[in-house]
Amino acid sequence: MEPIYLDHAATTPVHPKVVKEMVPVLENTYGNPSSVHHYGRQARKIMDQSRYTVARSIGATEKEIVFTSGGTEADNMALIGVARKRENEGKHIITTSIEHHATLRTAEYLENEGFEVTYLPVDETGMVAVSDVQKHLREDTILVSMMYVNNEVGTVQPIKEIGELLQEHPAYFHTDAVQAFGTLPIDVKELGVDLLSASAHKIYGPKGIGFLYIREGVKLQSLQHGGEQERKRRAGTENTAAVKGLQKAVELVEQERTDRNQRYLAFKKRFLQILEEEQVEFSINGNKDHCVSSIVNISFPGTNVEILLTNFDLSGIAASSGSACTAGSVEPSHVLSEMFGSEDERTTNSIRFSFGNANDEQQIETSAKKVSEIIHRLT
Which residue range or ranges hold the Aminotransferase class V domain (predicted)? Predict the structure, then answer.
């Protein structure tokens, strides 16, 4: 059986059109964008065009976009950069208990540096209450950081409502939009965010490139020291080819977002329909009313996630137990533990299936039937 990839939330295959755009840059545009000669100007032109495309896609200006190596660096830059720049104004940060480890580990680092972090809880659907944000806001709160879409269960957080709440408070508002970018339409002004992280490899672009939106006027300390690239916010020679790939991936998203979401939603519905037809016992983890089309997290009672993933893989089905960064870990999902409690069996019997451009309807039907067979055999 030909392998079937149902792990698009972990990473996506690079779109052929993105590869086509990147190859000429790798072959011919090798100049340093900081150089004033012809070769450098060629590279600088690509950087400028890409920055414009990325900025426009989220309702920002070119000055507000800093290219990074991906979402993790962008999250680190946002949290640590704000904390160090504003520590004289306060040392309190608010985030959530279900953030990606790029945020959680950074928050833990800041706690060790003397900052106080409040981790907001979530309900059984993985949703944060706006009232909880309001309740924990203090005069010395300098930053609120909350992911837009949870990478494990697909729940969409009330970012706009929280942005409105924070309009009257001096704390900066950061959102990790790595799973949202490319799936949901984003306007940073409408959302009321001051900082936003995104990554190319979640939208069929290359790995190793992402960006941080930093609203003009936001105070942020640089984490890297060296040259004056990225308006002195990120030293180091830029990855021109990857930036070009990001630009093309963003252009494709803008052209195809609606069609993609409709296709992914159809895949999700068909997958679940077949599980029901095959009389598989399962439940869905997450918020059914506020979720992205491409992710479904499913609990299979009486099973074990390690055994499931092994059997799926042997059958040619690539899925995940949650965050890709902990895919090799046998520990229960921290997201599901926060949603249901650490002793709940759903923390150790749930699988994330995430659909995307690598799939077609036949693959969805085949994989759902294979999954059904495996579940029946194991239970």
Answer: 4-365
